Each structure stands twice: as structure tokens, then as C-alpha cells.
Amino acid sequence: MDAGGRIALTPGLAAAFPVAFLLLTLLTRLGNAVYWSGPGGGVVLTGLFVLPLLYTMPWGRALWARHRGPLLAVQAALTYAPLLVFGQDWITIAPALLAGLLLLTVAAPASWLLFGGVIALEAVRVAVLGVPWPGNDAAIVIWMLVAPANSGVAFFGLVRLADLVTALHAARTELAVLAVGEERRRSTELLRAAVGDHLERVAGRARDALGALARSPDVAREQLAAAGRSARRALEQVRTAVAADRRGPPADDAGGEVDQHRHGVDVAPRLARLTLAVVLAAYAAILMTNVLVSGGRTVAIGAAAASIALVAALQLHHSFRWRAGQPPRGWRWTLAVQTLLPFAWFPAYDWNVLTLAGPAAGSALLLLPRRWAWTAAAAILAGVAVAWSLPVLDLYYGAGNRAVYVVATDNATVLYQLGAAATGAIVVYGLSRLPDLAEQVAAARRELARAAVERERQRVAQDTHDLLGLGLSAVALKSDLAGRLVGRDEDRARAELDALLRLTARARADIRAVTTGEGDLSVSAELAAARDVLASAGVATELRGTAAGAALPPPVDGVLATVLREGVTNVLRHSAATRCVIELTTDGGSVGLRVRNDGVRANPPEPTGRQRPGGNGLPNLSARVAALGGRLTTHADGGHFELAATVPLADASDVRRGEDPPAAGDRAHSLDEVVGGTVLDQEP
């Protein structure tokens, strides 16, 4: 239910509008076809509605897409061939369906040219065959031209709008994908500015150090010292940049450059309102013509014309000012006037005025609370049937008075008028509500895009911590180690410089992995890297366990590799460890990882709760492990700190990598103050 308890409009209901429109139009015209052209005319008219109804069905739309030309030719034949048999007795509304289908199946502007051609053929028909029934020729000709155009535009509008709403609803994640792409571009620029340039300088310094290693050890040491400083600045900028990124810009603005108009967000509301305005103008034009050519008294003509204009204006007011379940001001009075005017003028002037009772029923559905809306609309439509079932006296005697029904009309006429009014109600209600529905779907897509950008931002922050933290720490340590070896052991220094260049290249690859979300981590690769980088820091490393070389499901492999990176990073950054044990074991249907070091100070201070800038740490790791049904624990005792994770192997393949839930307000390490001083924090 919408705000204010009004009727809720779903995409399914929107899709039902064109079907109901066609069926009601068939119902109203079938009696005319049988009356003027006999049973054969009724059969042909029924066949005329088959292809338009087919177009409103999803499976029929596929058939239209494959055979558009032949199907349009069949529809044209069903529209015009009966003229050869029935002559001017053939129903005049038939071209409306062909005109609507041309608008739906042919690309603009050709579709509108063909639409105009169909209406022009009606003018040719009148010129060649004359008017189909006695009466005021001018009014009949205008009706023959305006009525098909009106119904064709209404059919087109209802189908096209339902399509747009369905497409917007089905593609509600499209904007989210585009917004995430924009956010990734922004993250790439941020990380390249914060890290990429520093890594380029590190690589350049390392190459210069290699060149100077044999001939000028002092220059090589200076280059490596500068490389270490660049790596540490890059690490600090990563922390600062991620922290700043979390504070802004708002996720609502992150995808703001995405052109929503290009993707149909604003098309449906504008098209609905334009179509509704055209339909109402056509109704009013027909009625105005009847009034102006009636030849009645001037006062009566003026009053009738003013009433028609007022009813049309009230409908536009109701439709265009209705927003998100909130009707316009004074709607009770304006709805009452719109409802009563057609009935007031029906006996007094022109029977066509009752056509405007249909839009009044649509306004009742639009404006009234749900418990009253259907009842009021049904009452208005019933009033149309009753009005056409009672003898109507000519209240205005004089030439040209159109109300000359002095006996009860037949059932076919009542059915026709009731169907016409119901059709008008559907057109008005549908075209009035569909803009709001489209705007609701567009708002939902924007919210999904905002959430997707926020999720992407959390992922980048998480992966920046997980991937870049250890890599940059390793680059800094390798620079220090190579610098200490220069002049003491040239072969080892050269080997460490080669390793430094590899680590720098890997860090650049980590930037790409962070910004694209396509990085793959494995425990086996991280074990080798961990032993290497810990050795560079002077930490003796022992690998234990039976699962070190085992193949793990990709989600488990990636998460445990991330846990291992976090454990090693914390050994380097937050402890004074001299020994680290890494153990990977399997136990039945689960795999366990344990990282234990001896770097905890003897008398650690109490945790302060201070959040390290840019950190992601244990809360995120815990969330990622829990997403696989596992558990992450930490333990500190006797000068040792242990990080352990256990993850079940069963059903792990059902979890897609890269969709681990972020942890709001997480900290870099819940025991930062417990595990002691950091290696990198000692740098100026």
C-alpha cells in the first residue's frame, strides 16, 4: 500500500494496463462492428486485436522482434482490407491499433511519420468514400481523425511505460554497476597518487643501487636508504588516504557522474505525462468540436465549452500534481467538480460529454484511499451505465441540440459507453501512476548504487590493508637489509636487491588487485612470502603442519591467505618478535591456521581503544572468516601473541570470493597496545 493508504501500483499491475485497455476497447467496439458490418465484421474486429495483445505478452514480444515486418503487414491488411467488403460501414477505430504498433515497433522519427501516415489515410478514406454516417460532417471528420490518433497514442503510452518500468525494475543494479566502476576509477587514482609514485621511486632507487653496488657502495647505501624512506612514506600515505576516504566524499556523490538520464531514469515520467496530456487534449478536442458545430444557443455553447476545458484542466491538475501517494491540495473539491460536471451536462447538451466521466473514475482511483477508491470508481462507471439506460428529455429546446434521446437506449449502446468510460479510467490512472512508479524504481536504483559504492569503498579499504600493508612493509625491510649488506656481502646484497625489485613489482600488482577486486591470494604463496619477509626482519620462522602443500577451496585459500598476511604484518609492525611459528593443519572437515610470535612486552599497557588510521584488522578478518562458517581468535600470554583461524571445508565452494562482509567501525588490531612497539613506527 502506498503512503496515505492509496492503491499500491506494482510492475505487474502496470503490465496489465495495456492488456485491459485492449480488451475494453474490443468490448466497446464489438457491438458497433456487429451493428454496422454484421457478424463477419465482429469476427474480423476480434482478429484485429490478436497481434496487439500478442505484443503485450513477453513471449509474444519475442515473436514480434523476429517477424516485425510480416506482422505489421498482417495488421495493416486486417485494418484496411475490410473496407473492400464492408465499405464505410467498417469501424473507424481500426487504424488506432496499427498506429500504436508502428510507434512501438519502428524507431523514431520514422515511427511518428508512419503514425501520421495512418491518420492521413483516414482523411483519404473520408475524401474518397465520404462520411460513414449522417450528422454534422465537420464533427464526424474530426472524430475520425482524432479518435484513432488518441487511442493509438494511449496504447503506445501504456505499453511503452510498462516496458520502461519493467526494464528499470529488472535492471535496477545497472546503475550500481556503473557507480562501482566510477568508484574504482576514483580509488585507482587515489592509490596511484598515494603509493604508485613512491613504488616507482623505490624501483628506480633499487636499480641505481644495483648499478652502483660494485663501484660505489656509499652511493648504493644512500639509494637504498632513500628507497626505504619512500616505502615507509607510501605505507603511511595508504593509511592516511584510506582513513580520509572513509570520511568522504559521501557515497551518494561517488557515482554522481553516471548519466542517469541516458539509462531511462527520467524518460518514463516525462513520457507518461506527455502521453496523458495528448490523450486528454484529444478527448477535449472531440467534445469541443461537437459543441461548436451543434448550432445551439451561444450561452449554452460557451458554458459547455468552458465545462469541458475545466474538466480537462482538473484532470491535468490531479495527474501532474500527484506525488508519492500525496494528492494535491483541495483534491476533494476538485474531484467532486470533475465527477459531477459530465453528468450535469449529459442531459442538457451532448452525449459525448459522458466520455469525461471515465477520467473522473481514474482520478478517484488515483486520489482516494484504497478502501474507497474502487468503490467510487465503480460508482462513477455505474452512473454512466445508468445515465444511458434512462430516458433523457431535451431540456434545451432549439436547433442543434444534441440530446435527443427520448427513449431508453439499447444494451449495446450502454455496453459501449460503459466500456469507453472504463477505458478512459485505465488510461488516466495508469499514465498518472506510472511516472511515480518509475521514479520510485529510479530512487531504489540510486539507493542500490549508493550501497554498492559504500560496499566497494569498504572493500578497497579492506584490501588496501590486507594486500598493500605487508607488501610495503616487506619493501621497506628489504631496503634496510640490502643497505646493511652493501660493502659487507656483495652477493647477498645483490640477491636482496633482486628480491626488492620483485617485491616492488608485486606491490604494484597489489594496487591493481585492490582497485579491480580481482586479486587472488593463496596460502602457499603467502607462506613463502612470509618466511622471506620475516627473515629479512631478523625473525626466525618455523613452518609446521600437514596442510602446507594441500589444495584448498578458493574461498578458504583466499581468506586464510589474508589471515596469514595480517598475522605477518602485525608481527612486523606491532611487535619486537625474534621468533614466529606458522602452523597450517587439517582436522576432519576443517582447516586451521595459527600464527604465534614472541614479541609481546612483559608489562603491556591496557588497550586504549585508539583506532589506527586506515586500519581494517581483526574485525574485518573475523567477518570474512565467519562468512565461511569459521572462527577467528586471538590470545596473548607469557610474552606471546597468537592469531588463529579455523574454517570448515564443506560448502566453501558456494561462497564467492571477494564478497566478504565489511565490519563497520573496525580497528587495525584490537591488541595494538598489547603487542608492543612497531618496526615501522620507529622511523622518523
Secondary structure topology:
Elements: H1 11-48, H2 50-56, H3 58-66, H4 68-80, H5 82-86, H6 95-105, H7 110-129, H8 137-170, H9 174-212, H10 217-247, H11 251-254, H12 267-292, H13 298-321, H14 331-345, H15 357-367, H16 370-389, H17 411-485, H18 490-516, H19 523-536, E1 540-544, H20 554-574, E2 579-587, E3 590-597, H21 617-627, E4 631-637, E5 640-648
Parallel strand pairs: 1-2
Antiparallel strand pairs: 2-3, 3-5, 4-5
GO molecular function: phosphorelay sensor kinase activity; protein dimerization activity
Organism: Jiangella aurantiaca
Protein name: Signal transduction histidine kinase subgroup 3 dimerisation and phosphoacceptor domain-containing protein
List its traits.
single chain, mainly alpha, Heat Shock Protein 90, 5 strands, disordered C terminus, phosphorelay sensor kinase activity, membrane, Signal transduction histidine kinase subgroup 3 dimerisation and phosphoacceptor domain-containing protein, transmembrane helix, two-component regulatory system
Total strands: the figure is: 5
Number of domains: 2
Quaternary structure annotation: single chain
- What would you report as the Rg, rounded to the nearest angstrom? 38 Å
With helices defined by DSSP (H or I, 4 residues minimum), what is the helix count? 21
**Could you give the order of strands across the largest sheet?**
1-2-3-5-4
Shape: elongated
Largest sheet: 5 strands, mixed
- N-to-C span: 63 Å
Helix content: 55-70%
**Mean pLDDT over the residues:** 76
Which residues form runs of ≥5 with pLDDT under 50? Answer: 253-265, 393-409, 603-616, 655-684
Protein structure class = mainly alpha
Strand residues, percent: 5-15%
Taken in chain order, the helices and strands follow as HHHHHHHHHHHHHHHHHHHEHEEHEE
